[in-house]
Design goal:
Blueprint: E1 4-7, H1 20-28, E2 31-34, H2 37-47, E3 53-55, H3 61-73, E4 78-81, H4 93-102, E5 106-109, H5 115-122, E6 130-135, H6 140-148, E7 156-161, H7 166-177, E8 182-187, E9 195-200, H8 201-210, E10 217-221, H9 234-246, H10 251-262, H11 266-273
Parallel strand pairs: 1-4, 1-5, 2-3, 2-4, 6-7
Antiparallel strand pairs: 7-10, 8-9, 8-10
Helix pairs in contact: 3-4, 6-7, 7-8, 9-10, 10-11
Bound molecules: S-adenosylmethionine.
Amino acid sequence: MSGKLYLVPTPIGNLGDISRRMADTMAGADFLAAEDTRVTVKLLNHLGLKKPMVSYHRHNCSTAGPAIVERLLAGESCALVTDAGTPAISDPGEDLVALCAQHDIEVEAIPGPCALICALSVSGLPTARFTFEGFLPQNKKNRRSHLDSLKGEQRTMVFYEAPHKLEDTLEDFVAVFGAERRIALCRELTKLHEEVVRTTVGQALADCATRPPRGEYVLVVEGAPEAPAQEADPQAALERVAQLRGEGLSLKEACAKAGEEFGIKKRQLYDMSLGK
Ligand code: SAM
């Protein structure tokens, strides 16, 4: 019988966030798969544990993943840990989970620290419906076109961002969402210099000039206001459907997304697209 993969979250800055279950799961696993073994060894030392470890990260996941799966199929259990936060959220853990699912290997997630949820909950912005966007594309053109696709997004949007890219990203936010859009900049969560700045996108950009960004950030951006019904523009919506189709969405998916953005029923847009 195959073993199990455990997804073990680790603190995003405060060792006090280690849970009993996190520690017990690591202690009980046959081996750990760690994003950076040097980081994980510090955590193990803190817990007084010694465990065999293998590396599993962005640059070796295509070979390390199948090797881990082989051991799981042979009956061993593995605890997957990253440098910080919940494995499989904006890191290659998602590939390992998919691989385990393909091989019918059981995967168990231990709940724990996650920067996205920590930031969203403290943002002061609506949390009932949100979309997690992770890291934006590095390339400026791709980043802008990704943000353009979020122009009409009414749900709260959550982004991960590195400090040296923050200013450029805020510039794009101003261009796409407008300077008055509300944002919560959640920095160094759970750490000594934790800070949550609730402001507008325009003001956040202006602040970069006087206070260069430092540390780790989660950006929580207010969604677009609901479009008034009379603004529905079927022609523009059809063009948007064509654009989304070009990006690889099925006709059904494109109509659902464009319909939401333009305040037009997806069924109506679907029929219009088929010339009905
Ligand atoms: N899997 C992790 C999780 O559950 O949050 C995220 C991994 S991702 C590679 C790292 C990004 O998460 C950072 O670039 C930053 O945007 C965000 N992050 C991680 N720790 C943070 C913290 N303490 N405060 C703010 N953002 C943080």
